[in-house]
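USER:
Before I trust my own judgement here, I would like a peer's view. Write it directly below this note and I will take it from there.

ASSISTANT:
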Amino acid sequence: MSKITGRPKKTIIQEKNIGFYVTHVQYFIIQQKAAIAGVNISDYMRQAAIYGQVKARWTSEERDIFKKMVGISNDLHQLVKVAGQEGSSSALLHFERYRQMIDEAIKRLSDAK
C-alpha cells in the first residue's frame, strides 16, 4: 500500500489572526463590497488593509475573452509553422485576420475595466 499524503502544504502560511468588531450595518456593507469584488470577506479586508484597494476577479465575459485569446495564440503558433514550411506570403492573410481579432479582444478588455 502507498502512503496517503493528503493536501499539499501551502507555500505561504498565514500565521496571525486579526479580529475586530463591526456593527451589523458595517458587516453588511463589507459583505456586499466583497461580493461585488468576487472575493471572500477575509481576502477583501486583507487587500483593503495592505494595498488600499481591492482588485476584483475577472468576470465571466473577461474569462471568455481570455480563453479566446489563448485559442488565437495556439492558431498563430500553427500559422508560424505553416509560414516556415510554405512561405510567409500564404500566411500573411491569416495573420491579418488574427491581428484584427486580437485588437478587438484587447479593446473589449480595456473597456470592461
Q: What stands out?
A: The chain has two domains: 18-57, 60-112. The mean pLDDT is 81. Helices lie at 24-37, 41-51, 60-86, 88-112. Residues 60-112 form one domain.
